[in-house]
Amino acid sequence: MSQQQSKASSKRERFVYEDDEVIEKPFNWAQLGRLFHYMKPYRKQLLPIIITMMILGTATRLAIPALIILAIDEAIWPKEGSPSMTLLYTYAAIMLALYIIQWGANTLRIRYTNIIGQRIIYDLRHDLFSHIQKLSFRFFDKRPAGSVLVRVTNDINALQDLFTNGVVNLMMDCVQLVGIVVILLLWNFQLGAAVMITVPLMFIVSTSLRKRIRFAWQDVRTKQSRINAHLNESIQGIKVTQAYVQEKNNIHYFDHMNKVNMKAWHKASALNQTFGPVIEITSAIGTLILFWYGSHLIQTSVITVGVLVGFANYIGNFWDPINRLGQMYSQLLIAMASSERIFEFIDEKPSVPELQEPKRLKEIEGHVKFENIVFEYEAGRPALKNINLEAQAGQSIALVGHTGSGKSTIINLLCRFYDPVQGRVLIDGQDIRDVTLESLRSQVSIVLQDTFIFSGSIRDNIRYGRLDATDEEVELAAQAVNAHEFIKLLPDGYDTQVEERGNVLSMGERQLLSFARALLADPRVLILDEATASIDTETELKIQEALKTLLFGRTSFIIAHRLSTIRHADKIVVLDHGVVMEEGNHDELIRHKGIYHGLIEAQYRFLSA
Ligand SMILES: Nc1ncnc2c1ncn2[C@@H]1O[C@H](COP(=O)(O)OP(=O)(O)OP(=O)(O)O)[C@@H](O)[C@H]1O
Q1: Is 406 close to ligand 1, i.e. is its CB under 6 Å away?
Q2: Average pLDDT of the residues of the chain
Q3: Is pTM beyond 0.90 here?
Q4: Domains of the chain
Q5: pLDDT tens figures, 109-140
Q6: What is the ipTM of this complex?
Q7: Ligand 1 centroid to 578 CA: how many Å?
Q8: How far is the centre of ligand 1, averaged over its atoms, from the C-alpha of 58 (Å)?
């Protein structure tokens, strides 16, 4: 990397979404409770099976070393009498049965925890996705798409492990640990206490090590999340990148992030590897104490050989749960950070709320009125200042004005993507805040400049306007707006698959598709954000004809960029810095010789230049 480039890379801190940086906060019990609430639907059917299997599995595991002690002390090496092979076989048979029960219980437990875990993840993902679908534009204004994506994917995945095996393992390990401690202390208090002397030491060392390991992995995840964000942006903006020949710069920046991620991973992995030896050394010290002190106790006839062997067996089962509990704690903290971010989204209230009991907007005529509207996206920066505007049913209103003058904002308010700070928007005399969003938006359609084409067939995309439309209705709509011709020429006609955003279609074709979609929806009020890109004359003519069909008999609001297309509008509204400056039809405004006249002249000069 050249010096200049590396300088540029280190200076920039892009793709850092503060709310996605993994945060470690004090343990939040309320949050954990909320998370566990998702288990509630399964507590009657699946949970009892899992708990029974868990108890069975742990009990059999704890019983086996006890049987070994009995087998040695009573069958192989009895204090009194001779060894008994019959007794030995009996103990062996019981042990075999216990192993089989343990295997069966574990298999069932794993199967049911997986089922429960997956259902919980499904429910959580469903809740999150359906909530995000309902959130208002304001929410998306504040967040890059990548950051929303990360929550539905990465953060939910982080909870997957917790629910599929984490919780049950945690409970099993706790029960197993307590069981072993109780059995050892009851069987022989002295020896039990002696072998557990290393536990506090191990606890202190492992806690501090775990913390460092956790932070190191958090660092890796943050770096990966930045890579994801960069990747998302790079793919979305690939055309601009290539057009401005920024590929090299982009690759260098990506390499830089990739390298930083690799270093973070090496660091975390190296730290992780120190944990195993710590556990092994501590358990080796524990075993050493067991045999040293145990043989002393055998010599003094305090314990039998069987007890020593049994203790060794229990101790073998002791360190694993301790190790896992440490890991589990880290996993729990990561899951808490993820759940915090998930619930933050789920708790987000739509900024255009519906009334408690909203009415349905009855079939409208299409009379639209903006009454003393004031609106601001950000406090203190008004985008619209005291707008009063009226469209009679069936009238066409053209909105013109310089870029940033507030044209799109007016239509955003009419669709109720945002609510005004002051004033109201009325349709047929009804405040649109009092009616359901569904009944409003099903009668007010919008055709955006940048038409979104979803992945699927052409037919599916037109049908998006009204999902219950028949194939025939879809084709009739396409014919009415002159889209049929080009669709028929596509490889599979109406069944041709188009990629997301319709990259394979031209701008004009996309416009015609969106007209067909709007015509199918058959709204009373139609909003049209006219495409700015220049289209060839033939397509332009087709679009103009299609527009006539589309607008016929409807109240329409047209954001016009090519002023030639709005000459025949019933009313032209000229906006400037969020204020209505002029209002009238084309002839009136030309005679007035104001802003509109100036815009027409400027466009004429531009076109003839
Ligand atoms: N989501 C947003 N958040 C903050 N400010 C916004 C947002 N959208 C628009 N604005 C601001 O509001 C003002 C009006 O914007 P608007 O999009 O309505 O203009 P416009 O007339 O439609 O412009 P154009 O012709 O360029 O599309 C502008 O100053 C713009 O920067």
Answers
A1: yes
A2: 84
A3: no
A4: 27-187 (1.20.1560.10), 359-443+527-534+557-609 (3.40.50.300)
A5: 889 888 888 888 899 999 999 898 888 888 88
A6: 0.96
A7: 10
A8: 64
